[in-house]
Amino acid sequence: MASTDGLVPITRAFLSSYYDKYPFGPLSNDVARLTSEIRSIISELQQRSPLNQGESLLLEEASHQPPHKIDENMWKNRESIEEILYLLERSHWPTLLQQQSTPEDAKLTSLLERLKVKFQNTLKILESFQSKNAELVFNTVMTYMPQDFRGTLIRQQRERSERSKQAEVDALVNSGGSIRDRYALLWKQQMDRRRQLAQLGAATGVYRTLVKYLVGVPQVLLDFIRKINDDDGPMEEQRQRYGPSLYCLTAMVLSIRLFLFLLWGQFEARKLSRSEVSVFEQAVDVYTSEFERFMKFMSEVLASSPFFISAEEAGSVEARKMDDYKEISIPAGKTYEVSLTVDSVNSYIAWDFSLVQGKMNMDVGFSVEYTSPLEEKILILPYHRYESDQGNFCTCMAGKYKLIWDNSYATFFKKVLRYKVDCIPPVVEPVESVAEAEGSEESLKADSL
């Protein structure tokens, strides 16, 4: 467990000075130029034929300001790239283009294949960027967690949550959900993760029953994950500093997507001119290269960015948490027991104990047993002698459990035991009412880590 002594969470003022060391080079002027030229072609396509409902929705989205959140823009770029790749699949080309009835069509199909490869490469880089950034943040947080059952519980909860989220996505895809539907769900899940971070830091929601057991978790860490995504919190500095460049790239890819969508619908009635093909080709080349440059830059910034700084740097002092381990004396020839009643399967029973040692190193017997409703005793953890131990297990039966420390074999020496035992109910994500869901959505205004 890394020490947080003397540290406080990063502040917006600190990030401002930190980001001064990492200026992002201006986007190519071609981004604005080509976006404007693509939008001009879109306007001409609009005039030729009334837009259907799907086309109108895409036009409305492309006409709005991009989202303010950095991560929401990343998801929007990823969704748009996938939609473009769908349109660039040969089976989704207009029938006339698939037939390649003219030399111009043959040249266009060759160009489309090349551009598809560029988008595929950019998509892989974006997926890797998001995955690595999420792991970086989580693993950094975990270095400040106690390296015992408490950290294990957080990891297990995260793994269960991610499996559940993936199963939800798979079910949507298998039921015929569209790319748009899938990304709406993915963004909702991202908001859920953000809400859970805030809940972990504030010991509320799904973590209400868990955080109360996280003795030894630095308060500075809980403060960090609670406040990092506040509207005017530290991450707002990142949005102000690097957001504008990303917003331009989001607007550009939305325009490319809309252009291709409208073009496919009118392809048999209107062919692209050579100049329009050139604009389209340049736009894809510029977008993919500039977006990849932005992601590489942000990876370097995020990899070096600290989570905590000294109190002196921040101009504040962090209070320390109190420890609530219990301490008891087990006389020679006696045992000490802690009984727990478990109401639900998949609860966790966890322990952390050590003997207060004197001039001689001593040990104590330890075992865990389960008593069935028929009063049958089942050994869960076999008897063994320890100087200290920590562990946990997931219950597969509700009922009575007993943790037993045994000093019956001692003739003269008592054992001073310092311990903590927890029975943690299953962490079940609450089912929100419609009003609560809307309230949560309105209140979450910040970027995820």
Short description:
A 4-stranded antiparallel beta sheet has the order 3-10-5-8, with helices on one face. A 4-stranded antiparallel beta sheet has the order 4-9-6-7, with no helix packed on it. A two-stranded antiparallel ribbon has the order 1-2.
How would you characterize the overall build of this protein?
The protein is an alpha+beta fold and 449 residues long. The chain is built from 14 helices and ten strands. The chain has helices at 12-19, 29-48, 53-63, 70-88, 95-99, 103-143, 149-174, 179-202, 208-211, 219-227, 234-266, 274-304, 311-314, 434-443, and strands at 7-9, 308-310, 326-330, 335-342, 348-355, 364-371, 377-386, 388-394, 399-406, 415-424. The strands form three sheets. The chain has a four-stranded antiparallel sheet with strand order 3-10-5-8, covered by helices on one side. The protein has a four-stranded antiparallel sheet with strand order 4-9-6-7, with no helix packed on it. Helix 1 (12-19) crosses helix 11 and helix 3 (53-63) packs antiparallel against helix 11 (234-266). The protein is elongated and about 100 Å long.
